Amino acid sequence: MTNAPKDFINDIERAIIDQLRAVFTTCHVYGEYPDAVDVQYPAIISEISSSGRFDKFMGAQVTFGTADKKGEIIGIMFTYHIIISKDSEINVAQGTDPETYVVYKGRRLLNYLMLNVANVLTDMGSVGGGSWASGTEVVQQDLNNWSDIGYDPLLEKYGASAIYMIAFKNYRAL
């Protein structure tokens, strides 16, 4: 089928998850909340919290060369969670020597992941970041502040959450 509709939402979600897995090889990246018995730490969890029309093109019709299409801007809201067990640790390279590293754990690990997950999300679609699927036109992306940052002594887990919004062009044939 040559005119099959694009799968923009799944394409965008997959691109982000693939980039997070490529950058954070010692973390476990999940595309949804894992079952409590299956979760491994440190965990980066991506979940779509909402999606819908963000903005409608004037008259809902656009022209590309000789092709007329309907379209609008669709927004996707993701909630990202970082969860670290009290025993989680990763080795972080220090300086230019790849053999020199420091073990990060606890709050230091949480701070490191908050900054660097934010960097990955912010850099998506740029020259140095991950790329979107062919034909996907992301027009805006905004990462809100990390919130609910802290340690739960009962669960013995550190955690933080942030909202990430992406808006993309959604075109359809008339």
Measured between the Cα atoms of the first and last residue, the distance is 17 Å
Tell me which oligomeric state these chains represent: single chain
The CATH topology, please? STM4215-like
CATH class: Alpha Beta
Q: Write down the Rg.
A: 19 Å
Mean pLDDT: 87
Q: What is the succession of H and E elements?
A: HEEEEEHEEE
Tally of separate helices: 2
Counted up, domains total: 1
Low-confidence stretches: none
Main sheet record: 6 strands, mixed
Number of strands: 8
Shape: elongated
Structural class: alpha+beta
Percent strand equals over 45%
Helix percent band = 10-25%
CATH architecture classification name = 2-Layer Sandwich
Characteristic key phrases:
single chain, 174 residues, STM4215-like, six-stranded mixed β-sheet, 8 strands, elongated
